[in-house]
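Q: Got a minute? One more chain.
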Amino acid sequence: MKRIFINLGLFIIIMFPPLYLLQYMVTVGLRNTYFTRGCMNDIYNGKAACDVLIMGASNAKFQYSPKILDSELHLNNYNIGISGWPFHMQYALFKIYQQHNKKPTYIVQNINGMLLNYQDEFYEAEQFMPYARDTIVQKFTSHLKGAFTVPELYFPMFIYNNHFEFVMQGIKSYFHIGPASQPPTYKGYIPHLEEWDNTFDEFKKQHPAGIRFSYSDTVLKEFVSFLNDCKAQDIKVIFVYAPIYKEETKMVINHNDMCRLYDSIAHAYSIPVIDYNNDAISYEKTNFFNSQHLNIKGSEAFSKKLGNDLQQYIKP
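A: Always. Here it is, folded:
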C-alpha cells in the first residue's frame, strides 16, 4: 500500500507541473481567439465597452446590428446576446461585463416569451471553459446540470478533455502560429444568411392547440434585481419586442398575459417599451430563417427601424 502512495506521489510530482503549464498556455491562447461564436473574450478583455449595451438571447445576438445602430444613434453599441439562454445567463454576462468594461449609459433589453423561463441545463458550456473558475461563472452555473466538475476545475487539462480542437487552437494562438483569429461576429452580432427553413410547419403540427407563455418566479426575481441594479447606477433600460413571425405569435394562447406582465414591470421602473410584434417585418417569411429569428435581410431592416425609434429615448 505504501508503495502505491509513493508511486502516486511521484506521478503527481512529475506529470502535474507540465500539465498545468499546458493548461495555462491553452487557456491564455483561447482567451485571445474567437474559439466559439460568442463574445466572451471581448467582454473579459474590456473590448465590449459601449454606450448602448444590447442584451437578450439569440433574438438579440442574431438580430440587433451594432454597425447599423452605431450609424443611427451616433453612439457605440455592443451586443452581448447569448444564444439559447433565458435571462439567468444574460444576467451573468451583464455582471461580468460590469467587472471588465465601463458602465453603459443605456441597455436595450430584448423581451419575449422565453426571457423569464427557467433553464437547468448548462447550454454551450464550452464558451465558458477558459473562465470556468471565475467567481461569477461559478455562482451562476454551479447548480446547473452539466456544470464544471471538481476535476475539471482543479485537475490540469481535465476541462479540455474531449476538446482536442480547442487545445490545438489555444496552443497555436499562444505561440502565434498561423494567422490571427478573426471574429465571426461584429460587436457580438451574428447575421444569418439562410432563407426560410420551413421548420415552422412541423412546429405547428407538434402544437395543434397552440403554446402558452409562462415564467419562473426565480428568474423573475433575478430580472427585478437586474432592473434595481440599473436604477441604482442610473443606467437607462429600454424594452424591445423584436419581430417574430406573425403566425407563431398567433399561436401563443396567452400572449396578452405576457404583454401585461412586461408592461407592469416597465410601468414600475418607467421603462419605455418598443413593440415590433405587429410590424410589417413580422408578416414576411423572407425576413426570417425560422419563425423566431430574422435573417440578415430582416435583421438589417429591423435594426434600421430600431435605430430610428430609439432616437426618442437615446441622445448622443
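A: Residues 7-12 have pLDDT under 50 and may be disordered.
Q: Perfect, thanks.
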